[in-house]
Amino acid sequence: MPDAESRFREYLSAKGLGATDQRLAILDEVMSLHRHFEADDVHARLRQKSHRISPATIFRTLALLVESGIVQKNPCEQMVGRYEHVFGHQHHDHLVCLACGRIIEFRNGPIERWQQKVAEEHDFQMAGHHLIIRGYCSRCR
């Protein structure tokens, strides 16, 4: 299995784009984050490391990372503008606290099988899904 950089380089090449030092620095920073993040988080971390990369370049590169399948933009309104890298990670779903915004990731085999069964019952070929359960975490109840 290729690593994230190889996959990104292949994607950029297929689109006729270059694997610039800035794009690769952004990729490295994104892959070092093991949590949900915003573009501003990436910008701040790169600035701390003396990288001079504009916010616009970060946003454009994040869009390329999403298109390449390395990063996912979260579909939940409580997580607007948040991303997570998904390359090399198992699929997971989210519990989102409506009070504090806490995000809890979880995996559940029976739910995954049930969703596949529902798709099959409707003669629907599933390409992916996002399950988001909204409510209140134990700290906010």
Short description:
This protein is of the alpha+beta class and about 140 residues long.
Would you kindly provide a written description of the structure presented here, covering whatever features stand out?
There is one protein chain. The protein has about 140 residues and is of the alpha+beta class. It has two domains: about 5-65, Orthogonal Bundle (Arc Repressor Mutant, subunit A); about 75-135, Dna Ligase, domain 1 (2-Layer Sandwich), CATH 3.30.1490. The chain contains five helices and six strands; from the N terminus they run ααβααββββαβ. The protein has helices spanning about 5-15, 20-30, 40-50, 55-65, 110-120; strands at about 35-40, 70-75, 80-85, 95, 105, 130-135. It has a three-stranded antiparallel β-sheet with strand order 1-3-2. A three-stranded mixed β-sheet has the order 5-4-6, with no helix packed on it. A hairpin with a 5-residue loop joins β4 (about 95) and β5. It is flat and about 45 Å long.
